[in-house]
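Summary of Year 1 activities. Much of the first year was spent building the evaluation harness for sequence design. The harness presents a backbone, in tokenized form, and records the residue chosen at every position. We chose the following record to illustrate the format because it has been used consistently in internal testing since the harness was completed.
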């Protein structure tokens, strides 16, 4: 099963993607997580990506596309994968389709987790990420057991630079300009499914499972 998660930044697509990966036993491929891991390790890719990410801009295709093209050809992707944060532009989607076509494959579902902008701005201000392992929380919806401390590795949790209010506004406008057109792109391919992302997380996941089948 090959799935793309669509939705504005902060719509909850990452949380849902992780649950899908767990239930269907397929890899969760998040370009944002790959970039953040590179930033943490201080790689050249990480340093280049950070300048764009901190401004709420997209990382250029030449740093992004090859990562995903390589990743989806790995053995563990044979039974499918869930893409989270990729594609984010029509050209990225076209490269993905072309790569899969060359492998004799195609995407099965594009799931749009739909949340209005006003909800997004409120949500992102409450988001916290672990400085060490990158696990994400929300001060109201997914709180840590001890305030400010990661449940998984006991490190500090912080508001990521790219979740700060001014950056969120920029990310939302980038989303509307560059990523939202993918909704029509996948609608015309007949694989678009929309779920109401304003509902509680478990309800959103139940709606997704209904689409994908148990
Ligand atoms: P995310 O964790 O998916 O919200 O991604 C965080 C940031 O990483 C984005 O705001 C972009 O700067 C960058 N990024 C992640 N995925 C992509 C992509 N497919 N194309 C370009 N930039 C990306």
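For this record, the design step produced the sequence shown next.
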């Amino acid at each position: 099963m090959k799935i793309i998660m669509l939705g504005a930044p902060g719509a909850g697509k990452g949380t849902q993607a992780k649950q899908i990966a767990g239930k269907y036993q397929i890899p969760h491929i998040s370009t944002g997580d790959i970039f953040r891991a590179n930033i943490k390790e201080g790689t050249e890719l990480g340093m280049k990506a950070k300048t764009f990410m901190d401004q709420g801009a997209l990382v250029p295709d030449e740093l992004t596309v090859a990562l995903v093209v390589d990743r989806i050809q790995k053995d563990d992707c044979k039974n499918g994968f869930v893409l989270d944060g990729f594609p984010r532009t029509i050209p990225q989607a076209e490269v993905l389709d072309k790569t899969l076509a060359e492998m004799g494959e195609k995407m099965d579902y594009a799931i749009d987790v739909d949340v209005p902008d006003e909800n997004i701005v409120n949500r992102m201000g409450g988001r916290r990420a672990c400085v060490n392992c990158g696990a994400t929380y929300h001060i109201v919806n997914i709180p840590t057991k001890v305030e400010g401390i990661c449940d998984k590795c006991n490190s500090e949790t912080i508001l990521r630079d790219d979740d700060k209010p001014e950056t969120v506004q920029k990310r939302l406008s980038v989303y509307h300009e560059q990523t939202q057109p993918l909704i029509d792109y996948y609608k015309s391919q007949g694989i678009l499914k929309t779920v109401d992302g304003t509902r509680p997380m478990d309800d959103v996941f139940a709606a997704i499972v209904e689409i994908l089948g148990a």
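Residues 9, 31-32, 35, 52-53, 57-59, 64, 85-86, 88, 92, 162, 171 surround adenosine monophosphate (CB under 6 Å). Quantitative recovery figures across the full test set are reported in Table 2.
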